[in-house]
Structures are given as C-alpha cells and as structure tokens.
Design brief:
It contains ten helices and ten strands. It has helices at about 45-50, 75-80, 95-100, 115-120, 125-130, 140-150, 170-185, 200, 220-225, 230-235; strands at about 5-15, 20-30, 35, 55-65, 65-70, 80-85, 160, 190-195, 205-210, 215-220. A six-stranded mixed sheet has the order 6-7-8-3-9-10, sandwiched between helices. Strand 9 (about 205-210) and strand 10 form a beta hairpin. The N and C termini lie far apart (about 40 Å). The structure holds adenosine-5'-triphosphate (ATP) and magnesium ion. Magnesium ion binds near residues 44, 45, 86 and 162.
Length: about 240
C-alpha cells in the first residue's frame, strides 16, 4: 500500500458570498498522478489553492501524512509542495537560469541549488540551450516548461499544476504532458494537474476527480473514464 500524502476532508471554501468548494474529499498518495477536471468555475483552481494555503478555508480538514495541518504557503513550500499557477508566470526580464534560481529560494541548503538546477535541466534540454536567454523571449510552450522546471528546483514531493496546457498548440500540449509524466515516474513526485484537455490528460494520469459547482461529483481511475460519457454528461449539464 502506498502512503497517503495529502488529504482534503469535507473541505469548504467561501469567497465572501461565493461558495467555491463544499464538502470536498480528495486524497493523493505518494508519487500518484491525479487530474482535477470539470467545467469553468467548478472549483478546480480553488482545490489547489486550498492545498497550498492561499484559499480561505470555511470548514473541513487538510491532512499531510494523515496529520491535521493549517496550510500556509511558506510552510507548504518547506514541506515539499510546489504550486505552478495558471498563466505561465515567468519573470520575463530575467534569464532562464535566473528564473530557475528563484525556484530554489526556500532550499534550506543553498549549496544544493546548482546541483538541483542541473538535475532539472536533464528533463528540459530545450531550456538548457537557452539558459542565458531572457524568459520573455521564449516561446509560450518553452515558458510553460520553464514554470514547471522552476517548480522542480526545490525538489518537491508534490507538484500542483493549474492548466499547464492552456493556450498551447496541440504539439506542445503533448510535449508538456509527456514531460510531466516523465518527471512523475523518474522522480516519484506526486502530481495534481488541473486540466481542460480531457483526452491528453486521461491518457497519462492514474486517477481523476471531476468537480462541478464546488463539489466532487465523480472519482475514478482514468482508464475507467476513457470511452464513457461521464465527462460529457458533467461538462454539458449546467
Ligand atoms: N478570489 C475570488 N473571489 C471571489 N470569487 C472567487 C475567487 N476565486 C474564485 N472565485 C469563484 O469561486 C468559484 C470557483 O472558482 P475556481 O477558480 O476555483 O474555478 P475553476 O474550476 O478553476 O474554473 P476555471 O476552469 O475557469 O479556471 C467560481 O465561482 C469563481 O468565480
Ligand atoms: Mg481555474
């Protein structure tokens, strides 16, 4: 049995009058690769933010290795959680290498920084060739790769990725997902990915949670979701 790394139990999140999540149960095992899917506004980003400690919890518990915690971003980083938010947020006027260095800001041992960056670059040969290029001059796909690479420099246990394929051409979507899969397998890092591109994601994740209106409406192994109309039903129902 794999150990449970992270759990949300009956978690609710409210933004003022908006109930973004209601009684959400989600659990992630060590090294597991899980997708969060669902229509716009379903609460997918809020799940990642609740885990990372940047959403206002209105109820429920967050457990880390079965122990109750109150997530706060800086502590989650120290525990080994990396959050890559939506929208390819690179520091455009800094070089690729400088962006990667920033990914290691919380490393307890600064002498690990150079070694970690070199390890991460093994997965991203295209970035290695552009280490001294300003991030703003990279293509959209390369910038997305850079946000993921930067998130790995801290050598995390969990990578939270919010819509890494958004706005990328289909060729890059496949490439980004293959990269994420490679990292998940090689480094045994748990990955929670929010994704709209249903087909590409079901082929690579182990399990998927489907959210709608702030609730988990379905949880299944990815292979059991492929070829069913569960997703269509949920995405089209208003
Ligand atoms: N900071 C905020 N203040 C107020 N309401 C918010 C805030 N962030 C999210 N919401 C609301 O909470 C609900 C869930 O939002 P969330 O961003 O988690 O959805 P999502 O599934 O990620 O959607 P999308 O696919 O559009 O990214 C939505 O109704 C949204 O409008
Ligand atoms: Mg979102």
């Amino acid at each position: 049995m794999k150990e449970t790394l992270l759990k949300l139990k009956n978690v609710s999140v409210r933004y003022g009058g908006v109930q973004a999540l209601e009684d959400v149960d989600i659990s992630i095992d060590e090294g597991e690769f899980v997708a969060l899917m669902g229509p716009n506004g379903a609460g997918k980003s809020t799940v990642l933010k609740a885990i990372f400690g940047i959403a206002p919890l209105a109820g429920g518990d967050v457990l880390w290795h079965e122990g109750k915690i109150t997530p706060k971003a800086h502590e989650m980083v120290r525990r080994g959680v990396t959050f890559v938010p939506q929208g390819r947020q690179v520091f455009k006027s800094l070089t690729v290498y400088e962006n990667l260095e920033l990914g290691g800001y919380a490393l307890p041992n600064k002498s690990d920084l150079g070694k970690n960056i070199q390890e991460v670059l093994r997965f991203f040969p295209a970035l290695r060739e552009k280490l001294h290029t300003k991030a703003g001059h990279l293509s959209g796909g390369q910038q997305q790769m850079l946000t993921i690479a930067r998130g790995l420099v801290s050598d995390p246990k969990v990578l939270l990725l919010d819509e890494p394929s958004l706005g990328l051409s289909p060729k890059y979507v496949t490439e980004v997902f293959e990269k994420i899969k490679e990292i998940n397998e090689a480094r045994k890092i748990a990955v929670v990915v929010v994704e709209h591109s249903v087909k590409s994601v079901l082929e690579i994740v182990q399990r998927a949670y489907i959210l709608a209106h702030g609730r988990v409406v379905l949880e299944k192994p990815a292979k059991d979701l492929m070829g069913t109309d569960d997703l269509e039903r949920i995405f089209l129902a208003k």
